[in-house]
Amino acid sequence: MFLVVFVLFSINFVWSQPLPFDYKEEIIDQLPVPEGEININRLQWLPASHDFWVAENGNVYVYSADDLSTKKLVLSADQIKSAGLVTRTENIIWNAARNRILIYTNSSRVWRGNTRGDYWYFDLSNGKGRQIGKGLLSSSLMFAKFSPDNINVAYVSKHNIYVENLSSGKMIQLTNDGTDRIINGTFDWVYEEELSCRDGFRWSPDGRTIAFWRVDATLIRNHLMINNTDSLYPFTIPVEYPKAGNKPSSVKIGVIDMTSHKTVWLNIPGDPQNNYLPRMDWAGPNEIAVVQLNRKQNEATFYLCDGMTGKANKIFTDKDEAWVDVVKPFVWDVPSWTWVENGKSFLWNSEKDGWLHVYKISRDGKKEQILTKGNFDADYASYNAANRNVYFYGSPHDATQKYLYRINLDNTDTVRVTPAKFDGTNTYRISPDSKYATHTNANIHRNFNERLIRLDDNKKVYPAGEDEFTEPRLGFKLEKIKIKTVDGVEMDGIMAKPNDFDPSKKYPVYFYVYGEPASTTADDLPHFDNFISQLIPEGYIGITLDNRGTPAFKGREWRKSIYRKIGVLNSRDQAMAAKEILKWNFIDTSRVALHGWSGGGAMTLNLLFRYPEIYKTGIAVSAVTDQRFYDNIYTERYMGLPDENEEDYKQASPITFAKNLQGHLLYMHGTGDDNVHYKNAEVLFNELIKQGKVFNMMIYPNRSHGIFEGPGTRDQLNKTFINFLRQNCPPGAR
Q1: Mapping DSSP to helix (H, G, I), strand (E, B) and coil, where does residue 128 land?
Q2: β-bridge partners, 105
Q3: Contact, 41 vs 450, CB < 8 A?
């Protein structure tokens, strides 16, 4: 369960079982770009190269990272307008020869991303263009891409796959059974949300066939949201949504022949309603690689399938007593494997030896070699086929940070790529050929610094001059802390203090919480929760901590000790750490507040209900109040199947302990939340009322999980939040 990233919002939330808002992207995107300079944060790499394109004043330019002194105009704003395209260029899809493009525009939201829109085809040799998919519903096309032979373009519309000839404009519908429940070439809500699946078809290398996913959700029940405001009579909005304990959609993979239009279905073993197919891609002219996850998601099987006969050959299996991670949140549609040595082997991340390591596995699955050896985590990033370098993220000495490292297939000695002066958190957007990358660095004492580098020698190629490191102007100070609990658990944390902090006085403390497997919050970055950031100068101490179960670089046992213990182990870690913090002389134990959103909202409720002697004021937003109410993929991955461990589900759910509420609670939720349903709120309210508990609530009609829609919404939410905190946990040193 991950929460969407909205760059235009200024408030930093960690959403339920979701990832946190990408603060770095928000800040960088707001920076002005001087005339004549390149916004390297916005650059988009071209396929199989280290060239990139940028849009400037409506014109499309291409640069080579080898030489930024010149740029090539490939399509002018006038040519775009002459074709009849007047809306904004949102993305560009290139053919392999780079002489034809598709401009994506006029997009609309599907689930959490704008993946449906219009496409315009342009021939760069003459600048002529036209809209493709004419005759289909406006803004309905998805994932358009060129065939490798440059003859056709394929796309999805209304859950069917189409192919269109670029010369004649003739359009052929390849699938005909698409409905709201039969989904071809893309995915339903839960596959996108929990398995990072969006683009559901792939051209074969020769362009003669298309492999595609077909999702059959006909047996999945609807969750009904109700709209009370937009018509005289209320109406319901159905959302196809498989909850914990319910079987998932039946998914299979087919291969359509472009000549006969016949489909061959891959014969992958197992019940489609008790397995998942999160990744698929071509592995040769007629061979397709597929990853299958079992229902409990603790066994991932890698198959090579014959695209002509459908026969599936089992190659490799990765198992774990808890769960196996085969996808990365918000890394859409990228294969879980990387072919190396001309397809003779592939790279695979696994925690099988107790740490996340990169393995090289032979194509037949018979040989396996661990490449990154040692007691550290190695999160695979990219591979350079030219020099055989394998790049990965890690941080062996400080889990709040992140650095880039490399090994070589011929020499597995670990080399740190990130220079020593870039202390803190480092992220790289690596070119498809792994020769260049944009490198962003920041830490709690340093603003974001972005540069374009050559990876093999770390040479900076843009911008010119020395790197400038500036101190962030936050209005408060940040520092790292480590807390060891009575259970012997050492937790990393970030603490925010007022600039005029006086250690001889006592301050209220505000805990910003999340604590689930999707994200960390104690990161070495120059930001803190934006709600309390407004008030820290008035005299608050802000603290965020990463408990066991968060995806920190601390080994498998740290990350997976939370299995079947969500709400239990993570809340105890947080509470026991808070007890140690309350021993500090400058903390006022009568003024202890906490806040979290979604997964953090559930944590807020669990802490407020389970440990009322510690926490006095809580603000929970869009929380999962009963684990049975959330979707099956996320919940069963971390909690197992409800019919096998009903008591674990009960102990994990905040509602079980609502009777213990003693402090001040403000609960906020949107009734249009298709992620964490508003049902969670009303069931919680019902229990609190039953137990005679007094609490505050703020309900936002028809707002989604992010609670941002409609005029005045964010301003009102912020005021409500701040006023409640000031009233019940007053600021100021005493």
Answers
A1: strand
A2: 118
A3: yes
**Which token pair is 389?**
């370098």
Measured CA distances, 406 to 41, 327, 369, 409 (Å): 23, 21, 16, 10
User: In whole numbers, what is the pLDDT of the chain averaged over residues?
Assistant: 94
Tokens read off for 519: 């994200």
**What is the rounded distance in angstroms from the CA atom of residue 183 to the CA atom of residue 499?**
55
Between 603 and 31, residue with greater pLDDT: 603
DSSP result, 231-245:
SSS-EEEEEE--BTT
Find the helix or strand (DSSP H, E) in which 78 lies: helix 77-82
Measured from the Cβ of residue 98, the count of other Cβ atoms closer than 10 Å reads 16
CA angle (373 as vertex; 367, 374 as ends), nearest 5: 145
The single-letter DSSP state of residue 374 is S
Residue 454 is inside which H or E element, if any? strand 446-454
Phi then psi dihedrals of residue 140, to 5 deg = -120, -5
Judge contact between 700 and 229, C-beta under 8 A: no
Q: Please tell me the predicted confidence (pLDDT) of residue 41.
A: 85
Q: Which residues are bridge partners to 345 per DSSP?
A: 340, 362
- 482/484 Cα distance (integer angstroms): 7
Query: Which domains does the chain carry?
Result: 476-728 (3.40.50.1820)
Chain position carrying tokens 């002194």: 69
pLDDT per position as a tens digit, 568-618: 999 999 999 999 999 999 999 999 999 999 999 999 999 999 999 999 999
Place of tokens 């937790």: 491
Distance CA 363, CA 382 (A): 19
What CA–CA distance (Å, rounded) separates 449 from 397?
22
- Position 469 scores a pLDDT of 94
- The SS3 call for residue 640 is coil
d(CA 62, CA 74): 7
**Strand partners of residue 552:** none
Which H or E run contains 254? strand 250-257
For residue 525, report the phi and psi dihedrals to the nearest 5 degrees: -140, 155
Q: Which residues are CB-contacts of 353 (< 8 A; sequence separation ≥ 6)? A: 370
Q: Which of 19-28, 513-522, 676-685 comes out lowest in average pLDDT?
A: 19-28
Cβ atoms within 10 Å of 207's Cβ, excluding its own: 16
Tens of pLDDT along 266-322?
999 999 999 999 999 999 999 999 999 999 999 999 999 999 999 999 999 999 999
Q: Which residues contact 553 (CB under 8 A, 6 or more apart)?
A: 356, 376, 377, 379, 394, 395, 396, 399, 402
Cα–Cα distance for residue pair 663/593, rounded to 1 Å: 10
Q: What is the DSSP string of 576-624?
A: HHHHHHTTSTTEEEEEEEEEEETHHHHHHHHHHHH-TTT--EEEEES--
Annotate 565-579 with b (16+ C-beta within 10 A) or e (fewer).
bbbebbbbbbbbbbb
Residue with tokens 């701040």: 722
CA distance 304 to 287: 6
Q: How far is the C-alpha of 202 from the C-alpha of 143, rounded, in Å? A: 10
Q: What is the Cα gyration radius of the chain?
A: 26
Q: How many CA atoms lie within 13 A of 451 on its CB side?
A: 22
| Euclidean distance between CA atoms 257 and 17, whole angstroms | 40
Give the CA distances from residue 73 to residues 13, 37, 80, 127, 493, in Å, rounded to whole numbers and listed in that order: 40, 15, 13, 11, 48
